[in-house]
Design brief:
The protein is α+β, with helices and mostly antiparallel strands. Helix 2 packs antiparallel against helix 3, helix 2 packs across helix 4 and helix 5 packs antiparallel against helix 6. The protein starts with a helix and ends with a strand.
């Protein structure tokens, strides 16, 4: 609103300064500077300013912006008619416009057969009145254009703010869903381990406490560094190594040793894919291989996770679960179409490939 009023003020200042500029231009050519035409111009601006104030503060906000187009057109017509009548009445009372305009007396004797000079009547609508009427109409048109333009800009900004707020709330909700889902799976793993190896279960609990610290604090931020996410993934995989024997589950983990400090990514973005690899890919009847790779290149993060598919009935085929649904939704909200997610599955291998830009 402030910028709109500043623009109006600048326009009126420029209009008010026009006669001064013209007089200064003539003054530079040697003519005398006269204030009379300047004052006459400013006096003529008073009705236009009144029309503008009435139109800008009453007709536009209370009638036009509420969709009452017919009422607005009638109101503008009444205002223009009223001010036009006032202009015409003021102009008729000028001495030079009253009655007839006569030709100046001749400077020489004319022939007696010459026609008498024709009287010059004032036009039905004098040019000064017509000029002021057009100027008033132009004032209203410019006022509508500027007001609606700023209103549209404000509505777009408000809509964008509301959309960003909604997206942030939805992202917060999705992250809140990920954390319980993650801890539920890890606690189930520890529960199974406690029945077989109490010492390992205790060690897993210590490792879980480190993971909880990351989930509770880092996940509250909209972004985290790639180095922090790498440490989190490494800790989680170490936790899984404690649970499974190496000759049963072979885990290949390839993470960048030195990550750039400027690479930022959303927290807990890859853990759902890694969780699913261990949840659905491990089999004690067949050899299991889980391969996890994470790289950065040219400002982009490349993540891949694959696991062998154990023999199972088609009815138990993996369909994603809550974790993958949340990840897809987060990716859509954060990146729109600026990311690549490919999931391939056959009878032997399930693989995920994700490429995201740095935030």
């Amino acid at each position: 609103m402030r910028h709109e009023y500043i623009l109006y003020a600048l326009i009126w200042v420029v209009i008010a300064m026009l006669p001064i500029f013209l007089e200064l231009w003539e003054y530079m050519d040697g003519a005398e500077f006269e204030w009379r035409p300047v004052l006459r111009w400013w006096t003529g601006m008073v009705p236009l300013v009144a029309i503008f104030l009435l139109h800008n503060h009453l007709l536009i906000p209370r009638i036009l912006k509420k969709g009452k187009i017919k009422h607005y057109c009638v109101s503008v017509s009444v205002i223009l008619l009223a001010f036009g009548t006032m202009f015409f009445s003021m102009d008729r009372h000028r001495p030079e416009m009253h009655g007839e305009r006569r030709m100046p007396p001749p400077h020489h004797i004319e022939s007696p057969h010459a026609r008498p000079p024709m009287p010059m009547h004032a036009p039905v609508l004098p040019l000064p009145v017509l000029f002021k009427f057009v100027l008033a109409l132009l004032t209203l048109g410019v006022n509508v254009a500027i007001s609606l333009s700023f209103s549209y800009s404000r509505e777009q900004a408000n809509r964008k703010d509301l959309e960003n707020y909604r997206l942030q709330e939805e992202l917060k909700y999705l992250k809140q869903q990920i954390s319980p889902h993650f801890f539920m799976n890890v606690l189930n793993n520890i529960h199974e381990m406690a029945e077989d190896d109490v010492a390992k279960a205790q060690e897993m609990i210590l490792e879980l406490s480190r993971l909880m610290r990351y989930v509770l604090y880092e996940s509250e931020n909209p972004v985290t560094t790639l180095a922090s996410e790498v440490r989190f993934i490494s800790s989680y995989v170490d936790l899984m190594r404690m649970r499974y024997l190496e000759d049963v589950v072979k885990i290949n983990l390839e993470l960048p040793e030195d990550t750039s400090g400027y690479i930022n990514i959303p927290p807990l973005l890859f853990i759902s894919f890694i969780e699913n690899a261990f949840k659905h890919g491990v089999s004690y009847l067949n050899d299991t291989v889980i391969d996890i790779r994470l790289h950065e290149k040219d400002g982009k993060v490349l993540f891949s996770c694959s696991n062998t598919v154990p023999s199972r009935n088609p009815e138990t085929s993996r369909k994603g679960g809550v974790g993958l649904v949340n990840v897809r939704r987060r990716l859509d909200l954060l990146y729109g179409e600026d990311y690549s997610l490919k999931i391939n599955e056959d009878d032997k291998l399930y693989s995920v490939t994700l490429i995201i830009p740095s935030l």
